[in-house]
Amino acid sequence: MKRVVITGAGTINAIGKTVPETLEAMREGRCGIAEVETRDLDRLGVRIGGQVKGFEPEAMFNRQQMALYDRFTQFTLTAAREAIAQSGLEFRGELAARAGVVLGTAGGGVHTWDENYRTVYEEGKNRVHPFVVPKLMNNAAASHVSMAYNLKGPSFTVSTACASSNHAMAQAFQMVRLGMSEAMVTGGSESMLCFGGIKAWEGLRVMSKDGCRPFSATRNGMVQGEGAGVFVFEEYEHAKARGAEILAEVAGFAMTSDASDIVMPSAQGAARAMEGALADAKLPKEAVGYINAHGTGTAANDKTECAAVADVFGTHADDLMISSTKSMHGHLIGGTGAVELLACIMALRDSVIAPTIGYEEFDPECALDVVPNEAREARVDVALSNAFAFGGLNAVLALKRV
Amino acid sequence: MTVRDKVIEIIAEQAMLETSDVTMESTPEDLGIDSLGLVESIFAIEEAFDISIPFNANDPSESDFDISSVGRIVAGIEKLIAEQKS
């Protein structure tokens, strides 16, 4: 089996429009959650989100592109551009024929659904723009990345709610590891911060109206974010031979299904995924220095996740750090694992642990080192990135310092 | 603005050309408008004139709407406006 490394990273999210900006915000513990800018805000009960502000797609894309790109595709292309530029790869010939793009999204073109439902239901119009379908489809972002960068190998979109990106990156990892491709573009994106997207989440009554405070006894729900994270996963020898800068190694992954409840998380399912990722990476539990938590800030997730970590790591659970960067960028739903992978890369590469901001009060059910409020310097050799989705679908990636 | 001028404006915008580059003899191919671009132009024209154009992208030649040149498109639209507004 081949070794797989990350040679490019790109993002856009509420705390940064590039990877350096995002990592700086994480180091500083900056919060990107604020009142959302959307129409009919007065009809929403939940009015905060980790929204990408000051993003000007018209400056990046021409009129014809704009007609085809939903906001989730715009985010994806923005992040992909940064990641592929950093990797220095040009996809031509045999490399292009085998390289593909696997992305995660939960909702796909939610803005496009929202706008066009308005057109036909609210405004009563009987005609919609001809590109509604190619704009809203969940694979639109992956397809546009493939077209922009000549990626002609296996390309598709994975949709497993909040674990979409981790499932997608697990697929890309597997393809490079098995030698199917020398390089894969992977990650995910989401953009549900429109009236209908917020209203749908509001209905579930798990959203906070005032902030995301993972692991804190005062937490009162999750906060939606939006954006994208995209990476280049490359075969180690291929990357080394061309002198590429290696950000981290993807060492293993595991996916499990709780097979129990459509929304309630299971500590067992989460624990099996973390154990599985370490077994797959052939790494001992004691090697893990940092876990980027799923850490949504809901009562159920955070205590279940902490119980799972305690269960898997035993006494070592007290020696490792676990933080939730959702406190800063919000929950990017299907894109969340991709943006959060950046915190793992920062831990491994820069020895900086992103904090869990908004932490106010100790919760005995979350009695782990959650790196409260301030980033910390610490050398980490192995990091896990957790994603536990509605539907009980869990995906955990194990990363290693190179 | 006449029907002709409005259609030229829509087609020029779609083709990313100046209106002066669009003549009555131009075909969509001449102007670099592909099938998706044509569908989008038809939509824009329908919106502009509040008409419904019988255009089938599966087989444009089988449609009751002639798109072989800008002039034919303008003529077709004028006819549709007359029919649908009467």
From TrEMBL, chain A:
One of its GO terms (molecular function) is 3-oxoacyl-[acyl-carrier-protein] synthase activity. GO terms for cellular component: plasma membrane. Gene3D superfamilies: 3.40.47.10. The keyword Transmembrane helix applies. It is found in: Cell inner membrane. Keywords: Cell inner membrane, Cell membrane, Membrane, Nodulation, Transferase, Transmembrane, Transmembrane helix. Residues 1-401 form the Ketosynthase family 3 (KS3) domain. The keyword Membrane applies. Pfam families: ketoacyl-synt (PF00109), Ketoacyl-synt_C (PF02801). One of its GO terms (biological process) is fatty acid biosynthetic process. Proposed to synthesize NOD factor fatty acyl chain. Involved in the synthesis of a highly unsaturated fatty acid moiety, which forms part of a lipo-oligosaccharide that is responsible for host specificity. Belongs to the thiolase-like superfamily. Beta-ketoacyl-ACP synthases family. This is Nodulation protein E.
From TrEMBL, chain B:
It comes from Allosediminivita pacifica. This is Acyl carrier protein. PROSITE patterns: CARRIER, PHOSPHOPANTETHEINE. The keyword Phosphoprotein applies. Residues 1-81 form the Carrier domain. Keywords: Phosphopantetheine, Phosphoprotein. InterPro entries: ACP-like_sf, PP-bd_ACP, Ppantetheine_attach_site. It holds the Pfam family PP-binding.
